[in-house]
Structures are given as C-alpha cells and as structure tokens.
C-alpha cells in the first residue's frame, strides 16, 4: 500500500511519499519530504484532487490560494505549476485570494469562497475566471434569501454532500448557508450559530471546517477559538442536535478534525480532533444523543498544538501534524519603562516547539 501526506506551513506545502509507509517495522520510520512547493506569500487555502492516485501523475494535484496571485494548480510530486485560474475583483482589478477551496465530484470543477462570494471554476479551462459566480450577501445591504438574511462575511469553509449535491458554506461570521446543485443552484436556507445552547458551553469565533455525515443528514461544524464541535441535523431545517466538548482549540489557527466511519458492522462515527495542549481526542456517535458529550478517548501525542488529524480508511493508522506560530515574549508584564529598575535585563521565556508529522498504529 502506498500513501501520500500533504501538510502546509506558512508559505510552503510539503508532501511526503514513502512507499513503505504502512508496512510493519520494529523501529520508527523517519519521514522526509518528497517535494516542497514554495510560495512568496502565506498559503490561504489548499485542497487535493479528489481522484489523487500516485500511480497516475495526472491526478496527483494540489490546488492552492495565495494573496495577489491567481488560484494555482500544482503537481504534488514535482512541484510543477500545472495551471492557474484568475479570480479578480471587477471593481479594483486586484486578485482575490480565496479563504476556502473545494473540488466537486470527480474534479472537473472547483469552488472558491471569499468575502460574500462563492465562485465555481472549470478545471479544464486554465487562464479563465469563474464559470459561475454568486454574491452570498450584498456588501452594503443584506439581501433576503428565502426569508432569511443572506450569508455575510468571509466564506471560510466549504463541503458538499456527495448524494444530494448540497453545498454547505460557512463563514468567519458564524453563519452557514446551504445551496443546491453543488453551489450552482438555489439557496436552500441559512442559519447562524450565535445564541444556541452550545454557544454558551463551547463558544466559537468563526467556522474553519464543515463535514457532512455519510448519510447526508448531519453537518459537523468546526470553529476557531472553540472548546468543541457542533452537530446540526440538516433535515430538521438546521437544528442543533448535539456537540462535542473538551476539544481545547482556543486559538485562531485552523485545527482540522476528521470524521471516521467505522468499516465494521457497528457503523460507528468517530470525531478525531487535536487541541492546543498536544492531545488528540475522540468522540463516538455524537449524532446519537442530544446535548454535550465529553471525549471517549484522550491521548497526549504532541508538545504543541495539533493542527491536523486524519484517520486511514482502514481505521488502523492515524496521522497527526503539530506546530503553530510562536513569538518571543518578554518575562516582564509591565510595558511602562518607569516601573522597571535600571539593572533589570530582559529574559525571553522559553517555548516548546514541536513542528512534526507523526503516524500512529491503533
């Protein structure tokens, strides 16, 4: 079995391709980057091609968004630029850097989310702008959509239910919009997270990830500056069903989670999420109950924020990535120089750095 891992740092996207990654061994395997894609600006968003296959180099593709440039399609193995797609503000003629990217279906199109905008691009037409574009809410005055206020703010997360083709779009302003035909159809409705029962328990400062359940009934909503993950029943007009508590994600950094569907007869759904404390936690079947749920499993696996967690489809291997931006801090709390004695010297507080990618057998 061959596996590929892609992760992002501030301005580069390394990918790994060890051919013996999942083989049994007595000693730990040292992972080395197979290729690095370097950019002059920070990566705003990226996503991999849905039919990604190492045996077919035409599918080993990576879509990236960086400021002041078109959306770029790269080979994940050779770092070569394959194509670019301009996303331009018609008023200022400046490039728009999407905050969210998502391939649709078999990868013929991709969707880009920005401030009050959702655009669809045709992958087979490099050098061209969006094939369709709709404004989710007017920048001056919110328009009415099915009796509700339009989806305002930066579209920071996108997810499509494969069966119904319903696109869920989430914003940093804590709103979720549902759209038919993979984002090219009508608006099906919108709901906000502010003020619900979970908001007072786990908080949140903006949506960073949306995940559909395999049945298409439930939507898992991940936020920054949040203690948990909300679960909404979409078939009941977007009603809060339950939430996972104790996630420990009080940071503006995107900490990605994974929803694992057990291949055995139980059909369990497991939420895997990392926290700023270096722990990975698991919640089982949060959709089967109402209210809050504490983690069923909890492991300390890193010495820094766990920025991403994903489970292999077999359920036997977990990949976790850690690291965050650190700043040197002065040990003195006071910013007033008059309160500091003349013989004092600045002492930099030591910080633990753990920028690592690890694989675990479970």
TrEMBL record:
It comes from the Eukaryota. Coiled coil: none annotated. SUPFAM superfamilies: WD40 repeat-like. InterPro entries: SWT21/TCAB1_mRNA_Telomere (IPR051150), WD40/YVTN_repeat-like_dom_sf (IPR015943), WD40_repeat_dom_sf (IPR036322). PANTHER family: TELOMERASE CAJAL BODY PROTEIN 1 (PTHR13211:SF0). This is WD repeat-containing protein. It comes from Endocarpon pusillum. The lineage of its organism: Eukaryota, Fungi, Dikarya, Ascomycota, Pezizomycotina.
